Amino acid sequence: MALSAYSYMAQTWQSEDWKKVISKRMIGWRDQGSLVKLDGPTRLDRAREVGYKAKPGFIVVRVRVRRGGMN
Question: What is d(CA 53, CA 32) in angstroms, rounded to the nearest whole number?
Answer without folding.
Answer: 26
